Amino acid sequence: MMQPTVRTLEGIDIDKITDIFEAAFADYAVSFSRDEIKSMLRRRGYSPEYSYGVFDRGSIVAFALSGKDYFAGKSTVYDIATAAMPDYRGRGLSGLMFSRAIPELVAAGVERYLLEVLCDNEAAIKAYRKQGFAVGRTFLCHRQTCTEVISAGINVEGVNIKPLVPSDDILADDMFCDFTPSWQNSRESILRASTDFKAFGAYHNDMLVGYTLFDARYGDLTRIAVREEMRRKGIGSMLLNRFLAENRADAVKVLNIESTCSSLVEFLKRYNINEASRQYEMYKELST
């Protein structure tokens, strides 16, 4: 008979966390390398003191890995990944962790709990609603193999592409963007893992008119944006081509595009980088 204990993941080293992440997601369609898992945790701000595990006879059988930071003006805990080992699924363990976590987060002054869930995962959405989460934005996730991406050899007269160093100014969440980036694409997340990224700017007469920022190891096109009055001139295409030239993965992924951002969606479609999935941003306001 299982006698679960729920507690934070403080004191458990990152290699052990990587082990349990791999084991819990081993039968999922999308797989992650150990380096990719560690990069994901670093970028999304993994904080063991705000993360919880269910322990059975000393082993972690379920977990909720979280990061903490300010997001949209509020002290926020973000659910990086919640999962259970295959033999422990369907036992309500996520509910146990939330029941333990919420009062402790409130006591720590956290104002909001944030997570993302695939739109077709009805069981998870129902469970999160039961915990008091509401649906916020809808995000589109676009993916394509590199061999299927249409590349256009465009050069815009007077525009030069030069390397950039990620900085607070460049990464301002409204810098040429038509929507506020999600947690994993926010300024704070990028700066947490700044050495993982490459960035290039498009300059017209020495003025920055567009930029792209990406993790070339995993084909993650994190940001691509052009100043509004300079769009539809080929600058975005030049930036995309630079990303494709630098990319070391066999696919391209552009994650968490707000569904209202038709400009970016249509741009990606022109290059055959199409929608692969949708997910909801869900949140729970915590009373303090």
Structural overview:
The chain is α+β, with helices and mostly antiparallel strands and 288 residues long. Helix content is 25%, strand content 35%. It is built from 7 helices and 12 strands. The chain has helices at 14-24, 34-43, 93-107, 122-130, 187-192, 235-246, 262-270; strands spanning 5-8, 52-56, 59-71, 74-84, 112-118, 134-145, 159-164, 198-204, 207-215, 220-226, 251-258, 274-285. The strands form 2 sheets. It has an 8-stranded mixed β-sheet. A 4-stranded antiparallel β-sheet has the order 7-8-9-10, covered by helices on one side. A hairpin with a 2-residue loop joins strand 2 (52-56) and strand 3 (59-71). It is elongated, with a radius of gyration of 20 Å.
Biggest sheet details: 8 strands, mixed
Quote the beta fraction.
Answer: 35-45%
Mean pLDDT: 92
Poorly predicted tracts of residues: none
Number of helices: 7
Structural class: alpha+beta
Into which percent range does the helicity of residues fall?
A: 25-40%
Helix/strand order, N-terminal first: EHHEEEHEHEEHEEEHEHE
Number of strands: 12
Coarse shape:
elongated
Strand order of the largest sheet: 1-2-3-4-5-12-6-11
Gap between N and C termini: 37 Å
